[in-house]
Amino acid sequence: MKEISKQSLMKIHDVIHGQSYVNIKARLNNLLPKEYSSAFANIHLAGTNAAWYGEDSIEYLPYSSASEVEKEEIAIWLEQCKNEVCETLAREMAYVHLLFIIPSQEEIFWYRDENGNIHVTLAQWGFEPRSTGKKVDVIGMLLSVPRNLSQQKVNIHIDYSDNLPAGDTPFILHLFNNTKECKTDVKGDFYLGTLFQNKSFDIENMDGSNHFDFTVVKDGTYSAVFDLNTKYTIIIEYKDGECIPDYTFKVDGVDVRTNEDGKYENELKLLPNTTIDVEADNSKTTYTLKRSPEDNVFHIQIDKPIIDEPVITKEPDIKEKPIQQPEPKYVYLKVLDFDGKPLPDMPLAIKCKAGETISTQTDGQGVAKIDKSLLDEKKKYRVVFKITPEYRKNLNKNKDSNEK
């Protein structure tokens, strides 16, 4: 930090009683934008001496070195700073007006930033001389001096893209290297205050998509137009109120489709008399969009298609014949071993008491298929088969082979 002033506390005394000036400076840094918090130099107290510091990177100039025009610019900047600080900190610091008490004009330092704008830093703020003479409000006297520089009142007006006022609309203001969120009144106006001619400022909408640069001129007007998008909904339904999902129709000549609820939703930039053309069911309708999405809900009703159902006729003198289900052609017989395992490829003999014998053999699953026409459902049959050692040997051999 760079020392810009120092003084013995035997020659000056504080006017903000019962407060730590170091803590006051910390609160100023926390509560104010840097442009205004830097108007109060950092303070260091050591015994009966005090010193005030500014930024190392800034070349501070004494008030006495300023020209008459520069002194007027300094006074204007101090007035803006005092108004802003007192308004911002009125509740947090009841003593805020005492911050602008200084012993003399020698404690006013100034510099120009890279854009050529004047800035001011005060040393020995909140102190006055210990002399018993009449107290002098140094900054108050400086601000009361008549000014010759031309200043202009600046009122910003914002419309939306539909040519109606952007009332109660927030926007971003860039001025004096400071960014601030502002808001228009119900008529779309915002009074910025008085600025020097040729002073520049700019505004933009909250998402930065619309940006406008201005330079202050005599009797100038400062107007901007922000884009305003509005949503609209088209509902396709039958005349009985049933919505039609996945229905294809046209909006401004482009094919679109309803969702599962029978709705199509979109949004457009709102201009004066913005319309959309909707074509559905060989009919075309034009709708005018408004600001509120609730006013942009459009119902289109179409006729429900008639589906011809087949008619079944019967001859009255012809009786319907019962449909006969085909009888099974085979009887299936499953042969199992003592352990419940199927016996594949097993020769069988099916015998009845009258002496008839039907020879067959099981398949690989142990199932034999017998032609039903060879059997008489009124007769009893006996199944004969024999598990020979050779069959058992082959069966076990096949079993071991399958397990491997």
Q: Can you describe what's shown?
A:
The chain has helices at residues 21-31, 34-37, 68-88, 138-144, 389-403, and strands spanning 2-8, 12-14, 42-46, 49-54, 61-62, 108-112, 118-122, 127-129, 151-160, 170-175, 178-183, 189-196, 200-204, 211-215, 222-226, 229-238, 248-251, 254-257, 263-269, 275-280, 283-288, 297-302, 330-334, 347-352, 357-361, 367-371, 381-384. The chain contains 5 helices and 27 strands. The chain is elongated, with a radius of gyration of 50 Å. The relative contact order is 0.08. With 404 residues, it is mainly beta. The strands form 9 sheets. It has a 4-stranded antiparallel β-sheet with strand order 11-10-13-14, with no helix packed on it. Strands 18-17-20-21 form a 4-stranded antiparallel β-sheet, with no helix packed on it. It has a 3-stranded antiparallel β-sheet with strand order 1-4-3.
Write the layout of secondary structure elements.
Layout (H helix, E strand, L loop, with lengths): L1 E7 L3 E3 L6 H11 L2 H4 L4 E5 L2 E6 L6 E2 L5 H21 L19 E5 L5 E5 L4 E3 L8 H7 L6 E10 L9 E6 L2 E6 L5 E8 L3 E5 L6 E5 L6 E5 L2 E10 L9 E4 L2 E4 L5 E7 L5 E6 L2 E6 L8 E6 L27 E5 L12 E6 L4 E5 L5 E5 L9 E4 L4 H15 L1
